[in-house]
Specification:
Layout (H helix, E strand, L loop, with lengths): L22 E6 L9 E5 L2 E7 L5 E5 L13 E3 L2 E3 L6 E2 L5 E3 L14 E2 L1 E4 L2 E5 L23 E10 L2 H9 L4 H4 L7 H4 L1 E7 L2 E11 L3 H7 L6 E10 L3 E9 L9 E13 L2 E10 L6 H30 L16 H17 L8
Antiparallel strand pairs: 1-11, 2-3, 3-4, 4-9, 5-6, 6-7, 7-8, 10-11, 12-18, 13-14, 14-15, 15-16, 16-17, 17-18
The protein binds FE2/S2 (inorganic) cluster and fe (ii) ion (FE2).
Length: 359
Amino acid sequence: MNTHAAMPNLTGPGGGPYLRNAWYVAGWADELVADEPQAKVFLEEPVALFRDADGVAKAIGGRCPHRFAPLGRGRMADGILTCPYHGLGFDGSGTCVLNPHQGEAPPKVSVAAYPLVERYRLLWIWMGDAAKADPATIPDFAWLDDPRWEAVRGSVVAEGHFELYVDNILDLSHANFVHPALVANSFTLGERKFWQDGEKVFSRYTRPDDYLSEGISAMVGTTGRKQDFIGEVVWHAPGNLYFDFRVADPGTPYDQMTLLPSIHAFTPETAGTTHYLWATARDFALGDAEFSAIMRGALEFAFEHEDAPLIRDAHRLMKGQDFWDLRPLVLSGDGGGIRARRQLRRMIAAEQGRVLEDN
Ligand code: FES
Ligand SMILES: [Fe+2]
């Protein structure tokens, strides 16, 4: 499962290496409901998610130390997560606090406790050194939690290495080919600019005075009219992307253009599977359920049924080989994806106390 054979010094025990000291999206907060724990895998580690007696979301190691049953498939009892196999109970700190057998004391054992923050309607998990987890470094997706915006959204576990999914958002030149109903010339003919600022990577596409796709035109109410278009993607390591999509009548000032903000969050499940969470919002047609259904359907089709199967098949054709070992052709649209891959590799090396000579 090692997909990073070219970087043996960086390779962790699983299919990594992964950046551990970073915030990863663990799911939609409202999908973690009281008394319904979840079993998930992040960075190849089993994790149990649940809400404690106060409703606070918690994440602890997902493998019971007794016979290794998935704790996330257990039941809640008075705010304690009980193992589905023989009923040992664990609190939000991962400590075993309940032994239901024969009046015995709970064994002195605990599982990992992962920092977990509920913010912007998302759960953010920290898979590294808990002492380094600073919620101030969670990227800003405040619009997800702002009543001025109404979002449609989804989440799916998709096959393929998460960096292939990151590439997909940073290189929107694929859009004409993969999403013909949604996108017209903007990304292939538009001006492209890629740059890095600190640890963030940016891709920007600008296309003034051209027709949008029929689908987008209908969505923003500009059918038959040429529009200015500006799309900017911001990558936050390791896999959280903001897409700022703006359209307007030609010449409209930037801050008055119609904005559709999106999040694409990719959290590795394993080296070959990725948690893909997405949302796109609007500040018009608020409360219009039919509009939301059409918008959601179009985006879900694009991300989950156009992008994901293609990336899945590309991942399969890579047969577990390292991305760079395959000597990928570099095209002009790759300026964002390549920067992000290099930056992530530098961050992983730094986290492991290594210096890269070739990066
Ligand atoms: S496996 Fe969890 S209590 Fe036995
Ligand atoms: Fe796409």
